[in-house]
Design goal:
The chain has one domain: Rossmann fold (3-Layer(aba) Sandwich). The termini are far apart. The chain has a 3-stranded mixed beta sheet, with helices on one face. It has a 3-stranded parallel beta sheet with strand order 6-7-8. The chain has a two-stranded antiparallel ribbon with strand order 1-2. It has 199 residues and is an alpha/beta fold. The protein contains 5 helices and 8 strands.
């Protein structure tokens, strides 16, 4: 008796293949009553001490300009919000070093970030890689992973992992753009929403 062919494959057998699409012209637009608001573009700031800086060249329509200067805290911010909007970026090697050898200094930096209204820790490595064995390193993947969860639960400081450096560029650029936009909306009496109460 011939076997019946399965028409719909099991979801357990399906795996998504990463193929990021190109970024949009603008991450989001602010509208009121169906009319787009004329909001200014932010000036992105990249800290001059950042070792392997993210590049925002692909997102020229998102920013008025991109400047390199020393920031009081973090690696990325927007002009006028340096004391309220901070992004700290780590690749995997730097994250491991920060949570082991430089742990005390790093935790103090994260504590300072947690007191700001807009802070984000971005790791340009997938979570599965953070949780895997590290070749040539004595660090324990469980300790690094649990440290990240402690930052989230204890300091209430969000973190996000991106699979690649390039995807990290887009996520950070979008976060800076949207943080600036929401702040501008609130300061100009439009409320913290984009279109008719939506996110």
């Amino acid at each position: 008796m011939p076997r019946k062919r399965t028409l719909i494959p099991s979801p357990l057998a399906w795996q998504m293949q990463p193929a990021p699409v190109a970024p949009p012209a603008l991450p989001v637009l602010a509208e009121r009553g169906g009319t787009q608001l004329r909001s200014p573009l932010p000036v992105a700031i990249i800290d001059t001490r950042e070792q392997n800086p993210l590049s925002f060249r692909r997102f020229k329509g998102w920013f008025k300009s991109i400047e390199h200067r020393a920031l009081p805290l973090g690696d990325y911010s927007v002009e006028g919000m340096e004391d309220s909007c901070v992004v700290e970026r780590k690749d995997l090697a730097d994250l491991i070093q920060s949570f082991t050898t430089n742990r005390t200094v790093f935790i103090k930096r994260l504590q300072r970030m947690s007191r700001l209204p807009h802070s984000l820790l971005v790791i340009t490595a997938p979570l599965s890689e953070i949780k895997s064995e590290y070749p040539y390193r004595a660090a324990n993947p469980n300790r690094i992973t649990q440290s990240l969860i402690a930052v989230l639960a204890g300091l209430r400081l969000p973190f996000i992992c991106t699979e690649t450096h390039e995807l990290g560029e887009e996520i950070v650029a979008s976060y800076l753009y949207q943080t600036f936009l929401y702040d501008w909306l609130e300061q100009n009496g439009h409320g913290r929403y984009l279109a008719d109460g939506d996110l």
